[in-house]
């Protein structure tokens, strides 16, 4: 019986395939859990509480991640961020402040953004009484200047009051 001529060339391929099969099967039944694709993706959880404050007030930013190899902040914070933690943040002005956390895993990146907003009830409103305030003050200042100019400042009115 003649041996096929290709036997010597196909033997390394068969050995390689059997080796891969043994590696795959070695994890089965031995109590170990095979690595899933999902565990290679990073997950991110980011929150701010309270979600809205008045300018100058503080809120707590809290975050965590899993399966992350590195995390970066952007928006109102920046730089390398630890995988989990919390910090106090302050609303700096009358505009909202976004905070984004982006974490890289073995496969791709994941990010989440939260926004610290301005409390809606704190907007400036003008009422009829508040509009009269500056005018009344201006008139009082004008009257005081007139009294000083005419030498009547500090004198009691003619009625004796």
List the helices and strands and how they pair.
Elements: H1 7-26, E1 43-49, E2 52-53, E3 58-66, E4 70-75, E5 79-80, E6 85-90, E7 97-104, E8 109-118, H2 128-150
Parallel strand pairs: 2-8
Antiparallel strand pairs: 1-3, 3-6, 4-5, 4-7, 7-8
CATH architecture of one domain: Sandwich
Put simply, the count of helices is 2
Amino-to-carboxy terminus distance: 139 Å
Kindly state the percentage of residues in helix.
25-40%
The CATH first-level class of one domain comes to Mainly Beta
Main sheet attributes: strand count, strand direction, barrel closure? 5 strands, mixed
What share of the residues does DSSP label as strand, in percent? 25-35%
CA radius of gyration? 37 Å
Question: What do we call the CATH homologous superfamily of one domain?
Answer: Immunoglobulins
Strand order, main sheet: write it out: 2-8-7-4-5
What do the pLDDT scores average to?
A: 76
- Secondary-structure element pattern, one letter each: HEEEEEEEEH
CATH topology of one domain: Immunoglobulin-like
- Strand count: 8
Task: State the low-pLDDT regions, or none.
Answer: 21-26
Describe the global form: rod-shaped
Structural class, judged by helices and strands?
alpha+beta
């Amino acid at each position: 019986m003649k041996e096929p001529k290709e036997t010597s060339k196909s033997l390394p391929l068969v050995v390689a395939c059997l080796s891969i099969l043994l590696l795959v099967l070695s994890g089965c039944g031995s109590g170990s859990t095979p690595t899933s694709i999902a565990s290679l993706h990073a997950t991110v959880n980011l929150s701010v509480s309270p979600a809205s404050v008045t300018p100058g007030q503080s809120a707590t930013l809290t975050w965590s991640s899993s399966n992350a190899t590195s995390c970066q902040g952007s928006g109102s914070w920046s730089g390398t961020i630890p995988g989990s933690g919390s910090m106090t943040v302050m609303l700096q002005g009358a505009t909202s402040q976004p905070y984004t956390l982006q974490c890289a895993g073995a496969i791709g990146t994941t990010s989440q953004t939260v926004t610290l907003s301005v409390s809606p009830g704190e907007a400036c409103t003008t009422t009829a009484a508040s509009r009269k305030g500056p005018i009344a003050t201006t008139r009082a200042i004008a009257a005081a200047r007139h009294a000083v100019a005419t030498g009547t400042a500090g004198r009691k009115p003619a009625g004796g009051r």
